[in-house]
Every structure is written in structure tokens, then in C-alpha cells.
């Protein structure tokens, strides 16, 4: 999940159990899972937005390059 091993996740669980207590642990875990999902969704949307922008930039660059090539051909034929 976060690049941690099983033993590290057990240690985190035990620390949370001691810090939060057994009564609040399910609530804290649920809230953490909701926050984690929201952050993941935000990161995916941000990546998609950046990818879309880069694709648009590449197509604009290609159009500009094609136009320059066409202008150079027209200049050579004159």
C-alpha cells in the first residue's frame, strides 16, 4: 500500500491501538480510509489533467511544426 512491510504495518497498528484505544480505532481507521481515498482521487485527477495538458501542448507544437514546414516549402518554391 505505502511500500511498507507486513511487520511495519503490525507495528503501526499496535501504536495506533495504544494511542487511540480500542474503542476509537475503528472510527479512526474508517476516517483514515476515507481521507486516503479522497487523496488518491485528487492525485489521479491531477495526473490526468497534467497528461491532458501535455497532450494538448504536443498537438499545438505539432501543428506549429507542420505549419513551419509548409511555409518553408512555399518559400522554396517561390
Tag the structure with descriptive keywords.
mainly alpha, 2 helices, rod-shaped
Summarize the SSE layout with pairings:
Blueprint: H1 6-20, H2 25-77
Please explain how this structure is put together:
By secondary structure, the protein is mainly α. The protein has one domain. The longest helix is centred in the middle third of the chain and has 53 residues. The model has no long low-confidence stretch (mean pLDDT 86).
How is this structure best summarized?
The protein is mostly helical and 78 residues long. It contains two helices and no strands.
Q: What is the approximate shape?
A: rod-shaped
- Helical segment count: 2
Portion in helices = over 70%
Spans of at least 5 consecutive residues with low confidence: none
Question: Mind telling me the C-alpha Rg?
Answer: 26 Å
Q: Proportion of β residues?
A: under 5%
